[in-house]
Every structure is written in structure tokens, then in C-alpha cells.
Predict the structure.
Amino acid sequence: MPPLTYIFKALADPTRRKILHLLRTKDLTAGQIAANFTITPASISHHLTILKQADLVVDERRGQNIVYSLNTTVFQDALVWLLQFTDAGDKAPHEEENAHD
Amino acid sequence: MPPLTYIFKALADPTRRKILHLLRTKDLTAGQIAANFTITPASISHHLTILKQADLVVDERRGQNIVYSLNTTVFQDALVWLLQFTDAGDKAPHEEENAHD
DNA sequence: TAGACATTTAGACAACTTTCTAATCATAGT
DNA sequence: ACTATGATTAGAAAGTTGTCTAAATGTCTA
């Protein structure tokens, strides 16, 4: 599966987008994230797995907790792909031959 | 369903991304698009429906053919959403209070 | 080492996706 | 009006997703 597929699949769910939004200002534990939703912690855990798979977040165990944080670099991959469809288009003429999907 | 969900869902498939890529340089008929794939025209038609639903493409009948073209403005919605996760962040301080998802 | 807390994993289920074949709709040309 | 061509729609099969409950794992503290 192409990486962009994982990324866009991960972004294609409102719950997961809300999780990312929560992590935007500061890192949070799984429990803190779950506290913002009505679905079960197990379901949130599943969503976190999908976000990890897409490499949009990373996790680190900190004692009893698992702390999640954004991996901002991956958002740029999606951004770059989208850019080719805007009026800006493929800007750099030296940027060579189909790095595109 | 939030519009971003439609957009990212539509982008989360390699076939559909390839269709968008084909349309990047010029408008194409359903048949011309289908010629680039091994799956059936019926399946391509289905993918085109999903792209239309997300408003990423528009269609127009031209005699016997149906011509598809990109709707570049929608790509920007996705782009703007992604931008808030890059180092650039929410740039404008006067851009107010949660237009976010 | 036992108990409590935080989180994940396993297994089940309904809903949705992707693909196909076959049938239908729309237009053009004879 | 008939037929050929371009494209979509309908319905079915196989796979994937999002959610749940219940069980398991990992870590801290007594």
C-alpha cells in the first residue's frame, strides 16, 4: 500500500482528525485523548493504531501512561501531493520526473 | 458527513489519485480515463462518482461523451486543513476561532 | 506479590468498499 | 426507428472498517 493511502485513510475519519487536532497544542496520554470522546477507550486505541500506522503520530511509554504526539513531517507529504493540484502547481522545474503517486 | 471526510476518503485510494493525476494536464472523457486502467469501465465510473461526491471533479456531457475535469478549489480546503499541522501553523492571528473541523 | 490503574489486544458484528457481470440509459448516425 | 458506441446503474461477492465487550498486558505502589 502506498504511504499516501495510509495517510489519507487515516485522515478520512472525523474522530481521528479530532485526535490530531487535540495533539496540535500539546502531547497527550491515551486516556486524556479518550476523555474527549464518548466512544470506548478500546475504540480510541484502535484509531491511534491507525494514526501510528500512517506515521501521523508517534507514541512513547511514560510510566503507566502512553503519550502520543504529532509527527508533523508526514503532514507535509500529504501537503506536497495536494499542492500539485492547486494553481501553484508543480513549482520547481528542476524537481524531476514523477515522484508523484 | 463533514466535507473533509468525503475529500480524504476520495483521496485514500490509489486508483482515484491516479485519475486526478491524469486530469491534471487536461480534461478527459470517462472512456479516456478508463483506458489507463485494467479494471472495468463500470468500476472507473464508480470511482468517478466518489470523486464527484467529494467535489474534486466535475462532469459535463459533451454529445456521446462525459468529460471530467478537476475542481481545483476543493483541493485547497484539504490543504488549508493540513497546514495547521505544519511548522507554519495557523498563520494569521486575525483568522478567528475554529473554522477547523 | 497482589491490587489498582492505564492501555492494548482479541473476537464479534453491522455497515461500508471495491470489484465484477449484466442490464439500462443517452446520443449519434444510418 | 435501429443499431452502435459511451457511460452509468443494479445487484452480488469478498474484503475492510468502526464499534463494542471481555480479556490480557504493562507499570506503579503498598
